[in-house]
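Q: How would the structure tokens look for this protein?
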Amino acid sequence: MNEKKNIGNALQNRPSKPPFRVPDGYFDTLEDRIEARIADKSSPVSSKGKLIRMMKPMLAMAASFALIFMLVYYPLSVFLPNYLAKNTEIPADTTTVNENDLVISYLTGLTHSYYDLFSAEEETPEVEVNEQDMLDYLAFEMNEAEIYAELAN
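A: Here is the predicted structure in token form.
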């Protein structure tokens, strides 16, 4: 508590001058600086500057795609020339199919209706299961109480 009183006395004994100072000549040029800033902000931005500012992200993206393409395509074409397709011509011996032929082949291929697909009875193969296999299966899938209940029935 005594320390606080000592601090208060020390502060009271100090001369009362402001702790901060304004630089010399600050207010002499203040008005000129404010007017210069206002003039800069009120000057119209040229349409060329707007266009460049809008196109900058798109140009950067296009340049990055071009760079990635060159970093991938060029090494592949140099080191693996047979990997890239060099000949894209269609061989002359390939046959062309008429659209009508495609429609006819599609319609003739639909011999079954949906009803026929779902109503068709499939034969299930007969599988012989001996008693030991059945008990092994039940032992794997059930606990002892469930097995006993099944055997009791």
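The mean pLDDT is 75.

The chain has seven helices and no strands.

Upvote if useful.
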